[in-house]
Amino acid sequence: MPEQPPSGRRERKKAATRQKIADTALRLFLERGYDAVGIRDVAAEADVAVTTVFSHFASKEALVFERDADFERRLARAVTDRAPGAPLVPALRRETHALVRHCLADEAAPVWRMIDASPALREYEGSMRLRHAETLAAALAAEPGAPRSAVACRALARFVVDAFALAREADDPETAVDEIFRMAEAAWEAAEAGAPVRSAT
């Protein structure tokens, strides 16, 4: 489910400014190269103050991942907003498929090439995935029903978040997501039953 638009006039204005800054930054990064563009360049092109850029984005890297918070919320809501009694792992699989389709659209390809070519952006992406996994693990741990260990919740969360990165590198991303989630579901069911997951060795 996409993020709901802000309702108040002030909130809408802030959201519009944020989007303008992000769109301007991405255009400059793709035109000139990520390392060749600074925050001052982005601010000047967007016709805002440097402090305004930093009021919306904590770092230059965050300008590239401007949907970061939305994706983090979407993963947690796949757990918390599903219908009563609806199975958990399929809900997470559907949300992951939606995120993969969004991020692998043709227009996203130049952005991912830029990310792959930048150590700073790759490092930021890795820290972002860890944060998303912790947020998702907290949502899983708060689930009613049979208790599972914190380790089990964090393990499933890592499975889910890493599924995107693995799918992005796969020849068939959709099939890769399904394969990863079959393993995740088996592990989650074993944790629910209290049964140990047997080693492949």
Write the layout of secondary structure elements.
Layout: H1 9-32, H2 39-46, H3 50-56, H4 60-64, H5 68-80, H6 88-103, H7 109-117, H8 119-141, H9 150-169, H10 173-193
Based on CA atoms alone, the radius of gyration comes out at 19 Å
Q: Average pLDDT value?
A: 88
**β-strand number:** 0
- Provide a count of the helices: 10
**Roughly what fraction of the amino acids lie in strands?**
under 5%
Can you tell me the residue ranges where pLDDT is under 50 for at least 5 consecutive residues? Answer: 195-201
Q: Level of helix content?
A: over 70%
By secondary-structure content and strand pairing, the structural class works out as mainly alpha
Distance between the termini: 40 Å
| Largest sheet: number of strands, sense, barrel closure | none
What is the string of SSEs from the N terminus onward? Answer: HHHHHHHHHH
Shape type: globular
For this structure, the quaternary state is single chain
Keywords:
Helix-turn-helix domain-containing protein, HTH-type_TetR-like_transc_reg, transcription regulation, mainly alpha, 201 residues, transcription, Homeodomain-like_sf, 73% helix, disordered C terminus
